[in-house]
């Protein structure tokens, strides 16, 4: 059975959820083999085995964190040449797409970004133009490289051997052009990452100021959710830019998306309208965001949201 | 310091965008065409760096004849000149082919920096800077929320989920910028008038020495099997808050097993 190469996203020895999602997808088409760049694979092995990894190619050198993108693309290109996988799956995160991009050029392959599913014949499903059009697309040259949107697939366990196979750790000088001199970790550390979160709570123009975002954070924490913001809110400086959801920010498709004080301009909808369930709180009954709502409350968010937080805490015993 | 800023003309994100039935490529006829909004931040950063360090800003675009409108917009913001890669054989090119054509055009000129927007609002792949860095063998300084040039050294803040990385490289380099980096200027009336006289060089596939069999729709490494409008979401339950809206919302979440 042909191998399906999966690039692991991980933070040290912690396997990110999207890696389990990619392994779940990979099992449909062949034998999942993980490419692990950097240290931590020995500890992570059990987790990878739980989701069906047959092999784990490990390149444990520190260069993968010390230089931007190129070393990971080089590792994958080496594995593609050595193992001839039937496809390469990468998380459709900004960095994942860049790794895939360099791999596509190196291997003369076609690539697809932002797939939400992959069907028979490695035909990928994706949404374009802010979710307005659903496209089925496939790679026709080289080794198919498909970037899959985090959270699009439900990870399902299935046992695998996760045999550790050392992969070449020599990173060429050519891949060491952009050197990371410092990693700066900013606020929001306790909450799940926006792209990976199964619940996202976002605030918009209706929040009125930066201080009121504390209420969004409180609602998010009651649900174990990530916090997002509309462009209007980030442009106003009420919430940091990296949390912007929308056409020019992050695209999310969580199980539950709660939009608070967001009118639903196309710019915002483009980033969230493939969410599974959408809840809306807005005082304007005409706001276009209500067109997407599975459940909407027309009312003053400053009375609705605190009551919602109470209701959640009562039910979850918090 | 000589800077090249790559821009793309895209369909207006405010209009209803679709694909063409004939070949499943982006339908550019039925919509207004604008400069990709994320590229305006790249132009602004290029202009600021040239103002601070001296040198010229060259706009580079690949696209049909109509893309000259976007070139004029970029020139009216203050760029000095432009290169327009235009050839019918390029229509329908995928990202690797696009990067091949742009890399070939970059190979004809001397530059210290190439700057791009982080992605285009139509394809939203966010791959071109990485592909150009790969093809040109230059440092990839992408997703920058801050750029600083000091002699032959460039330092950026590379945006990440956890915050950012400080990254350093030697010039020349390929940079992509995120929108938080600056506030793009509006063209002045003087700028608009001056743009009409600025030089625009056009380059064909033959000029670039690229075999037409390597680019265009026929050479694309992907194909669209089918596409369709997303079915509208089923209408949801909308209630008016009569003092118990938050409680009703909590009930909904409980019924859906979110709590």
Radius of gyration of chain B using CA atoms only: 22 Å
Total beta strand runs of chain B:
13
Order of helices and strands of chain A: EEEHEHEHHEHEEEEEEEHEHEHEEH
Counted by DSSP, the helix tally of chain B is 7
For the termini of chain A, the CA-CA separation is 49 Å
**Mean pLDDT across every amino acid position of chain A:** 94
Please report which band the strand proportion of chain A falls in: under 5%, 5-15%, 15-25%, 25-35%, 35-45% or over 45%: 25-35%
Task: Name the structural class of chain A.
Answer: alpha/beta
- Give the overall form of chain B: globular
Low-confidence stretches of chain B: none
- Find the count of extended strands of chain A (DSSP E, 2+ residues): 17
Please tag this protein with its features.
heterodimer, A: 318 residues, alpha/beta, 9-stranded mixed beta sheet, 5-stranded parallel beta sheet, elongated, B: 259 residues, two-stranded antiparallel sheet, globular
Structure write-up:
The complex is a heterodimer of chains A (318) and B (259). Chain A contains nine helices and 17 strands. Chain A has helices at residues 17-26, 41-50, 63-66, 70-83, 94-107, 213-223, 231-235, 266-269, 301-315, and strands at residues 3-7, 10-11, 14-15, 31-37, 55-59, 87-91, 111-119, 123-128, 133-139, 145-148, 163-166, 179-185, 199-203, 226-229, 256-260, 277-282, 295-298. In chain A, the strands form three sheets. In chain A, strands 9-8-7-10-6-1-4-5-11 form a nine-stranded mixed sheet, with helices on both faces. In chain A, a hairpin with a 4-residue loop joins strand 8 and strand 9 (133-139). In chain A, helix 4 crosses helix 5. The longest helix of chain A has 15 residues, at 301-315. The termini of chain A are far apart. In chain A, 60% of the residues are buried. Chain B is of the alpha/beta class and 259 residues long. In chain B, strand 8 (153-160) and strand 9 form a beta hairpin. Chain B is globular and about 65 Å long. The model of chain B has no long low-confidence stretch (mean pLDDT 95). The interface between A and B is large, with 97 and 89 residues. Strand 12 of chain A pairs antiparallel with strand 9 (163-170) of chain B, so a sheet runs across the interface.
């Amino acid at each position: 059975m042909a191998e399906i190469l999966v690039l692991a996203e991980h933070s040290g020895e912690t396997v990110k959820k999207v890696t389990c999602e990619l392994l779940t997808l990979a099992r449909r088409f062949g034998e999942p083999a993980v490419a692990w760049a950097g240290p931590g694979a020995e500890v992570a092995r059990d987790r990878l085995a739980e989701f069906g990894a047959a092999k784990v190619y490990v390149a444990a050198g520190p260069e993968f964190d010390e230089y931007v993108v190129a070393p990971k693309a080089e590792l994958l290109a080496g594995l593609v040449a050595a193992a001839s996988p039937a496809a390469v799956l990468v998380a459709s995160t900004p960095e994942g797409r860049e790794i895939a991009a360099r791999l596509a050029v190196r291997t003369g392959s076609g690539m697809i970004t932002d797939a939400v599913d992959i069907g028979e014949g490695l035909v990928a499903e994706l949404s374009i133009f802010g979710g307005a059009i659903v496209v089925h697309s496939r790679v026709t040259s080289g080794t198919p490289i498909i970037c899959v949107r985090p959270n699009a697939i439900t990870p399902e366990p299935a046992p695998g051997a996760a045999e550790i196979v050392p992969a070449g750790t020599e990173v060429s000088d050519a891949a060491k052009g952009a050197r990371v001199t410092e990693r700066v970790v900013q606020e929001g550390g306790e909450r799940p990452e926006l792209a990976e979160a199964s619940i996202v709570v976002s605030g918009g123009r209706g929040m009125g100021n930066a201080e009121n975002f504390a209420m969004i954070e409180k609602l998010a924490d009651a649900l174990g959710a990530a916090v997002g913001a509309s462009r209007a809110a980030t442009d106003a400086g009420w919430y940091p830019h990296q949390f912007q959801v929308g056409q020019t920010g992050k695209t999310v498709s969580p199980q539950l998306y709660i939009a608070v004080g967001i009118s639903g301009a196309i710019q915002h909808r483009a980033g969230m309208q493939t969410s599974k369930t959408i809840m809306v709180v807005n005082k304007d009954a005409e706001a276009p965001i209500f067109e997407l709502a599975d459940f909407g409350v027309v009312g003053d968010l400053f009375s609705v949201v605190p009551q919602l937080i109470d209701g959640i805490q009562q039910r979850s015993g918090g | 310091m000589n800077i090249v800023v790559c821009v793309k003309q895209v369909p207006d994100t405010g209009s209803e965008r679709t694909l063409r039935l004939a070949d499943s490529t982006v339908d550019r006829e039925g919509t207004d065409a604008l400069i990709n909004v994320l590229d305006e931040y790249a132009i602004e950063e290029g202009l600021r760096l040239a103002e601070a360090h001296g040198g010229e800003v060259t706009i580079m675009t690949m696209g049909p004849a109509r893309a000259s409108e976007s070139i004029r917009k970029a020139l009216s913001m203050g760029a000095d000149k432009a290169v327009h890669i235009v050839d019918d054989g390029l229509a329908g090119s995928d990202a690797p082919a696009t990067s091949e054509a742009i890399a070939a055009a970059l190979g004809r000129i001397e530059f210290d920096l190439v700057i791009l927007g982080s992605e285009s609002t139509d394809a939203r792949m966010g791959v071109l800077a990485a592909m150009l860095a790969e093809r040109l063998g230059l440092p990839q300084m992408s997703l920058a929320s801050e750029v600083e040039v000091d002699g032959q050294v460039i330092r950026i803040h590379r945006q990440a989920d956890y915050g950012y990385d400080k990254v350093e490289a030697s010039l020349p380099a390929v940079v992509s910028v995120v929108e938080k980096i600056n506030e793009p200027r509006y063209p002045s009336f003087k700028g608009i008038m001056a743009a009409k006289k600025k030089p625009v060089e056009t380059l064909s596939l033959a000029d670039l020495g690229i075999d037409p069999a390597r680019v265009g729709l026929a050479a694309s490494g992907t194909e669209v099997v089918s596409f369709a409008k997303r079915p509208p979401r089923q209408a949801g339950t909308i209630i008016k808050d009569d003092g118990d809206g938050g409680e009703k919302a909590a009930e909904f979440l409980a019924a859906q097993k979110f709590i």
